[in-house]
Amino acid sequence: MNKVIEFDEAQSTLYCEAGCILETLQNHTKDLGYMMPLDLGAKGSCQIGGNLATNAGGIKFIKQGSMHSNCVGLKVVLADGTIIDQMDPHVTLPIGYDLKQLFIGAEGTLGFITECAIFCPPYPKNRQVALLASNDYEQIMKCLQISKKELSSQLSAVEFMDWESASIAMDYLSLENPLSDEYKYYILIEMSGNSQEELLQEQMLELLEKLEDHYEDGLMCESETQKDQIWHIREGISMAASGYGLAFKFDISLESKDFEDIILKTQERVNHLGGRVLGHGHIGDGNLHLNTVMKGFKDMDTAKQIKEALQPFVFDYIKEKNGSVSAEHGIGLLKTDYLGHSKSSEMIGYMGMLKKVFDPKGILNPYKVLPDHAFKPGTD
Amino acid sequence: MNKVIEFDEAQSTLYCEAGCILETLQNHTKDLGYMMPLDLGAKGSCQIGGNLATNAGGIKFIKQGSMHSNCVGLKVVLADGTIIDQMDPHVTLPIGYDLKQLFIGAEGTLGFITECAIFCPPYPKNRQVALLASNDYEQIMKCLQISKKELSSQLSAVEFMDWESASIAMDYLSLENPLSDEYKYYILIEMSGNSQEELLQEQMLELLEKLEDHYEDGLMCESETQKDQIWHIREGISMAASGYGLAFKFDISLESKDFEDIILKTQERVNHLGGRVLGHGHIGDGNLHLNTVMKGFKDMDTAKQIKEALQPFVFDYIKEKNGSVSAEHGIGLLKTDYLGHSKSSEMIGYMGMLKKVFDPKGILNPYKVLPDHAFKPGTD
C-alpha cells in the first residue's frame, strides 16, 4: 500500500498507493522536477490517503488550491467490497456525478481510499522568503492583503505566528531570533516561480517597498540556508508545543481579521492558570492553529481547568463568527457534536443518508464525523 | 436570480446568484481588480449556475483549476424544497462531507443551484501571447510540454487549433492570417502575471528560444490589439462553425498526444461526404472539441450519412483510449447511454442511489445524465 505506481509527465500526474508518506512523494516528484501540491508539518509521517480523507490544506493551499482540485483520480473500496475505480487516467473534467469528491474529507467513513492520482505542477526554480514583524495586528493584515494582491499566483505561502509560537519553536530547535527584537506578530511571505533568481528578488523588493509602512522590522532571506531557518521556526511550532508539555490544540477556520481577537480572549482565560497560548497558521486561508500548552505532563487538575476554560468557549466563539470547528484536522470522534455549529440540520441529515448509501452497516470508521442522531447503522 | 450579492476583498470571493451571465461577472470582478477563474467562448450568454452544473472547464482551467476548487460556496434547492446552504462565508476547508461537490457537474439532476461563491484571484497586470505553427503534430506536443514545464503557474492558457478551425474562424470574422503561410497545426500560448511588462516579455522570449526547433513559423504579439485578434480567431471557431452550416460537435477528453490521430481518422470518414473536420481545444488539459461541419442546413441525407460516420465511431475511439465522451459540455439527454464508456457499472449504480437520495421522484431534469437502468423514479 505504499508504492509509487507511476509519474505521468505528459499529465504532470503522480499515481500512487494511499499508504505513501507525503514526504516520500515530495522527494520522489521533486527528483523528477515536479512538486506535490500539498505540504504540512506532519509530512514525515502522514500518508497521502489520510491527507485526502481529511482534505488536508497546509502551507501550499493558498497557491495550489484544495485536494478537491488536485486529486484527479481515486480508487476506493466500499464497505461491501465494491471497488470504485475513478483513476480515469486522462480525464481532467469528470462526467456524471464526481463520486471521488465525496471521499475527499469524509475521513474514511464512506469508503477506504487505496490509490490516488495527484496533479503535480513543475517544481518552481526559485523562491524568495521574507519575514516581517509588527506589534500591531492590523498592520499584519495590511501586509497580507497587499501581498495577495501584488503577488497573486506567485505568492506560494503566507503564514502567521505570534511571539509565543515563534519563541517556543526557537527554544526547542535552538535557533536564534532572526530579527533583533521581539514582536507580537510575524508574517512569513514566500513567493516562487520559474523566472530568474534576480527577477524574483527584484519583485520581492518591490513588494517590501509597498509594505514599508506596515511593518516595524523584517528581513528578506539572503540564502537558501536562511530561508530554511525561517521555515524551520514556522514548521517547528507544533513539535515544540508537544515537547513542552500537555497541549490543547484547536485547528479552526475563522476570518483572519479575527485571529488576534480570539488569541487575546484565550490568553485571558488561560494565562492565569499557567497556560501559554500559541497562535499560528495559514493566515491567507483563514486557518488558525490555536494551541494552549502547559509545562509538563502530570498536573491533571490544572489540565482540567484549562480544558474547561477552552471548551466550549472556542467552539462558541467560532459559531458566533460563522467559522468552522475544524479546518484541516477533520472531525474525528471528538468533534461530532460540534458539526452542528457549522452545518445545518438538513445538511447533517443528508450526510447521514449518504452514509447509509455507502456504508449501511456503519462498519467504516464507526462513530466518526456524523453525530449519533444523523446515522444509526442498519436502520432502513 | 441574476444579482451580484457581494464581493469580499479580504477573501477574494464573489457572491452571486446563479442566473448571472459569466461575462457580466468577468466585467464586474475585473473592475474591482479581480478575475473570474473561468472563461469560455459562450461567456456572453452562459450563466454561472450552468457553468457549475456542467463543471465547465474552459480556457483558464490549466492555470486556475476546476470549479471543484474555485467554487467555495453553494446554495441549492432540492427536489422537496429543502435548501442546502453551503455558502459558509469564511471557511476555506469544509468539514464533514462536502455536499456542494456533488452538485457541481450533476447538471441539475440532484438539486437546483440558486447562489454561489466563487474564489477570484487578482486580475493579472500583464500578459504575453504567442502563436506557433507547425505541420508536424509531434512538434506541437513538444511546444506544449516545454511551455508547461518552463512557465508553470505563469502559463495562463494553451490552446490548439488545426488549419480548418483557424481558417473557418478567420473567414467568418474577416480576419487576416496572422502568419504568412498556412500550417496544419497551431498552438496559442498565453502567460500572465503581475511582474512588469518587460520582465514578462523577456520570459516569453526565453521560452520561444527554447522552443525554436519545434515550430516552423510563429509570432509573439506586440500589442494588446494583436493579442485580442489571436484570441478572436480561437474563440470565434465555435460561432463560425455554427454559421457555416450543420455542425456535429463532440467535446471529448483524450490524451493530447492522440488529438491528431482522431482528427485524421475522422477526416477519412467524413471528408468524402463533404464534411469538414475542425479540431481545436484546451490541449493542456486533454480537452478536444472535435466538430464536423457541412455547408448549409438542408441536405438531410448527407447529414444522416455524416452522423452515422461519426457515431458510434467517436465514442468507440474514446472508450478504447480511456477518454471521456464529454469533457465540459455535460451528458445531457443524448449521451446517457455512453456514460458506461467512461464509468463502471458499479459507479453508475451508486450514482443512481445518490439520485434517489436527493430526488426520489425524479422531477429534477428528468432523463438526463443517468441511463434509464440506473434510476427509476419512485421505486424503493
TrEMBL record, chains A, B:
Transmembrane segments: none annotated. The keyword Acetylation does not apply. The keyword Magnesium does not apply. Its cofactor is FAD. One of its GO terms (cellular component) is mitochondrion. Signal peptide: none annotated. SUPFAM superfamilies: FAD-binding/transporter-associated domain-like, FAD-linked oxidases, C-terminal domain. It holds the Pfam family FAD-oxidase_C. InterPro entries: FAD-bd_oxidored_4_C, FAD-bd_PCMH, FAD-bd_PCMH-like_sf, FAD-bd_PCMH_sub2, FAD-linked_Oxase-like_C, FAD-oxidored/transferase_4, Oxid_FAD_bind_N, Vanillyl_alc_oxidase_C-sub2. Residues 1-123 form the FAD-binding PCMH-type domain. GO terms for molecular function: FAD binding; oxidoreductase activity. Keywords: FAD, Flavoprotein, Oxidoreductase. Belongs to the FAD-binding oxidoreductase/transferase type 4 family. PANTHER family: D-2-HYDROXYGLUTARATE DEHYDROGENASE, MITOCHONDRIAL. This is FAD-binding PCMH-type domain-containing protein.
